[in-house]
């Protein structure tokens, strides 16, 4: 049987790790409130930062924040690379850590920013994606099943994107009350939650009305505020919109 004196160091280490994780979670909570209230960051940004910081906290394993230095962060970046994160994801996580430590320094929790000297991975340049004339015609001329809410939704999504030129992320954030069918405009919340009014063409408005009329027959979707819903009644995601566009381009 182990002696009490042999167990004590292990118990102390476990206690210190729990304390380190508790304090780290408090710092993360303070930082996310700062993003929401002072920086007016989007829900998407705040959610991503929470996920990134939670992953970093798991890597620390309860290590006290005062022990975080340049070398430890280099090990963390090497860890991300070893588990197959691409350069863009690593760059985003590094940007998150820079902002996090800058906030902790500003509020006096740290004296220096350990991430200040880290260089961002060089990203491969991506060419912007555009539809040519034939692809655009194929997308807008897609056949529609007027008895199927999903088919009407896809048509409304495509017509609204074409009519307004808004971002996919802005489109999926729309609620029914954002669309003024009489005035022919929609209220869009962009980056930093800034609102702007965008004109909407008659064809897009008719497509949206058809979709909403059909959707009302489904009890699961009847009283949902989001403009575009998935099959489970939740808000349509950006990834789902891209799948809709890809499906139409490929003629499936």
Automatic annotation (TrEMBL):
Tyr recombinase domain mapped to chain residues: 126-252
Domain called Core-binding (CB): residue spans: 22-105
Cellular component annotations (GO), alphabetically ordered: cytoplasm
InterPro entries recorded: CB, DNA_brk_join_enz, Integrase-like_cat_sf, Integrase_catalytic, Integrase_recombinase_N, Integrase_SAM-like_N, Tyrosine_recombinase_XerCD
GO MF annotation list: DNA binding
Major localization listed first in the record, in broad terms: cytoplasm
Pfam assignment, any one: Phage_integrase
Keywords associated with the record: Cell cycle, Cell division, Chromosome partition, Cytoplasm, DNA integration, DNA recombination, DNA-binding
Domain of life where this protein originates: Bacteria
Gene Ontology biological-process annotations: cell division; chromosome segregation; DNA integration; DNA recombination
Subcellular location: Cytoplasm
Name by which UniProt lists this protein: Tyrosine recombinase XerC
Lineage summary: Bacteria, Pseudomonadati, Candidatus Omnitrophota, Candidatus Taenaricola
């Amino acid at each position: 049987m182990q002696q009490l004196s042999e167990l004590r160091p292990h118990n102390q280490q476990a206690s210190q790790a729990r304390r380190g994780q508790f304090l780290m979670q408090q710092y993360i909570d303070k930082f996310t409130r700062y993003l929401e209230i002072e920086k007016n960051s989007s829900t998407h940004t705040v959610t991503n930062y929470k996920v990134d910081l939670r992953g970093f906290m798991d890597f620390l394993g309860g290590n006290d924040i005062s022990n975080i230095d340049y070398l430890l962060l280099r090990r963390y970046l090497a860890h991300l690379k070893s588990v197959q994160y691409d350069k863009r994801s690593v760059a985003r996580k590094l940007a998150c850590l820079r902002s996090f430590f800058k906030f902790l320094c500003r509020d006096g929790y740290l004296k220096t920013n350990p991430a200040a000297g880290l260089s961002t991975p060089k990203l491969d340049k991506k060419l912007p994606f555009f539809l040519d004339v034939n692809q655009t015609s194929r997308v807008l001329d897609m056949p529609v099943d007027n008895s199927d809410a999903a088919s009407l939704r896809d048509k409304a999504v495509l017509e609204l994107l074409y009519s307004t030129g808004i971002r996919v992320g802005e489109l999926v954030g729309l609620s029914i009350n954002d669309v003024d069918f009489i005035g022919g405009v929609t209220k869009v919340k962009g980056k930093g939650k800034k609102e702007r009014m965008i004109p909407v063409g008659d064809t897009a408005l008719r497509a949206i009305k058809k979709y909403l009329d059909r959707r009302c027959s489904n009890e699961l979707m009847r009283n949902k505020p989001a403009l575009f819903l998935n099959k489970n009644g939740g808000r349509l995601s950006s990834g789902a919109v891209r799948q809709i566009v890809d499906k139409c381009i490929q003629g499936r």
